[in-house]
Amino acid sequence: MKHNITYLFFKLKLLQPSESAITYWMDTNAIDKLEYTLKHGNYNTRKLAAEALELVGRCSSVPVLLHAMNDKVQNVSIAALNALEALGCHEDLVISITKKRFNWVKELRDKEVKLNANVEANKGKKHTIYRWERASKKSFDRVKEQLKRSIR
What we know:
By secondary structure, the chain is an all-alpha fold. It has one domain. 71% of the residues lie in helices and 0% in strands. Helix 6 (74-87) crosses helix 7 (92-121). The longest helix has 30 residues, at 92-121.
């Protein structure tokens, strides 16, 4: 009863479902509630809903997961990809999209690892920066000195 009231408040946009509510919906196979949460929740509830659909989802959940795959938050899109892979619907389109997205995620992670390795490698290096004197600065200093002298 408590989780049904939570769902009602969530539909009215008064509160976000908790992890226990999503777990309850997962245990009771309330796939429609999980799909709605995946569409309209905040980033944390969207991630939890995608993980729950990974465990209890059906092939009818594929369109919602495909939409969640393009989420702005990387953790949500990765959870949706994992759910699509776990559902294992044998549609060629879903399989090819999932493979492309997994390659995209792998490239992002490789770039991050490479960037961190470069930062670690450059940590101990000291950079020598040379300052070149400009002629205009010398002439400016000379004029300044002349102005300081009294005029006779």
